[in-house]
Specification:
There is one protein chain. By secondary structure, this protein is α/β, with parallel strands linked by helices. The chain has two domains: 37-104, Histidine-containing Protein, Chain: A; 109-184, Histidine-containing Protein, Chain: A (2-Layer Sandwich). The protein is built from five helices and seven strands. It has helices at 3-29, 37-50, 79-90, 109-123, 157-168, and strands at residues 60-66, 69-76, 97-104, 139-144, 147-154, 175-182, 190-191. The protein is globular and about 45 Å long.
Amino acid sequence: MTEGRVGLVRLFTLSMVFLPVAAQAKDKNKQKAPEVPGSYLVREVGHELRMLPFYTVFDNLEYKVEGYTVILSGQVTQPVLKSDAENVVKRIEGVERVVNNIQVLPLSPNDDRLRRALYRAIYGQSTLNRYALQAIPPIHIIVDNGHVTLVGVVANEMDKNIAGIQANGVPGVFSVTNNLRVEGVEGKEKAVS
């Protein structure tokens, strides 16, 4: 072998040894953008709760993320939904603890009748019927012993007021609390709509 070829072989051999080491050192020097666990968890918790099979317009699931703890709240008509919500959130990567403050509403044939009547009154109204076209309509109707709470998100203040008026017009309703939020105005807790 000539001296020139020996030098090329040595150079090639040295580059094969040192290039991976140099690449690793370069990767270590790169600054990684810190991942914000809160935004990931907020997104994932909301998605998983919306995908629950028994979640309906008559249920209200809310959550708050504090570090790696998820606090569930709201009201549901079926006890299985409370336990399903907790179990699905526990399986999300990064969740260390789940506090389940979801209230199971009492069984009541009268409340069931009111739920159906309120649904027809709200979603049957011409201004609000466009909301009924969504997989999970955004206006949730919570009935607890004849007392009604409207929760969710609507496009504007007028829709919020119309929903409240429609709910107040249903016979047998003792009171209506209109907690609908107008789109773009955020609260402390995240509602699953």
